[in-house]
Amino acid sequence: MDELDYRQPNNWPNFNGNMSGLYVDSVTKDFGLRQVLSDIFITCQLGEIIGLLGRNGSGKSTLLKIIFGALKADHKFVKVNDKHIRSLYDSRNLIQYLPQDSFLPSHISIKKVISVFCDQEQAAKLFEMELIKPFLHHKSNDLSGGEKRLIEIFILLYSKAKYVLLDEPFNGLAPLHIEIIKDKIRELAPEKGFIISDHDYNNVLAISTSIILLHDGETKKIKDHQELIDFGYLPSDSLTR
To answer: What are the domain boundaries of the chain?
Structure first.
């Protein structure tokens, strides 16, 4: 089945071609006979930190890859401002995606990687950051999993992209580094939009301006903690813990 990412969603009211922000609608994705995503709508504006929650296998990573353009959908409509995102080429300098697996190349130094992803001004800020300085002249093969994750996150936070998709950013990080990352996301949020998915839901809830739950292939806007219990994402006693 061909992608319909060039089509305006029929149920999108008052579409005038000049809407700002990241808009994702009409996303469906099947893997064989299993439909993972069936009724997806999600938006993100500059200044927003969207927490994307869901059980294992609910399609969170699949959705983020589709938004970024790394995975083909059966149907999709993805747009940033007035630009349709049909592929990785379209998302350049607009969207960045942190996958669960490391993306750092092994054959060049961390300093060179930073220079590729960030403009000169932002790269200079990373070069002077105490957390990053010790790794600048190392290659990724020399680093631990947590060190790679930390560097990858900062590279994307300081990249040119206005919208950053983070898939399991807190996995493997020390508690202190998690707090540093959360503070940096809050600091950068006025000029960027974030969608964050992580099994460490407490940290996602702590940093998010709004929560979206992937449930039975659909997106649900969550109003409060109780709704996460009602949808079966959290246990009934989680409010008293």
So the answer is: 49-61+92-236
pLDDT at 9: 38
Which regions of the chain are under pLDDT 50?
1-18
pLDDT for 89 equals: 85
Q: What's the pLDDT tens digit per position in 182-232?
A: 999 999 999 999 999 999 999 999 999 999 999 999 999 999 989 999 999
In this prediction, residue 119 carries a pLDDT of 93
Please give the CATH superfamily to which domain 49-61+92-236 belongs.
Answer: P-loop containing nucleotide triphosphate hydrolases (3.40.50.300)
The three state secondary structure string of the chain is CCCCCCCCCCCCCCCCCCCCCEEEEEEEEEECCEEEEEEEEEEECCCCEEEEECCCCCCHHHHHHHHHCCCCCCEEEEEECCEECCCHHHHCCCEEEECCCCCCCCCCEHHHHHHHHCCHHHHHHHHCCCCCHHHCCCEHHHCCHHHHHHHHHHHHHCCCCCEEEEECCCCCCCHHHHHHHHHHHHHHHHHCEEEEECCCHHHHHHHCCEEEEEECCEEEEECCHHHHHHCCCCCCCHHHC
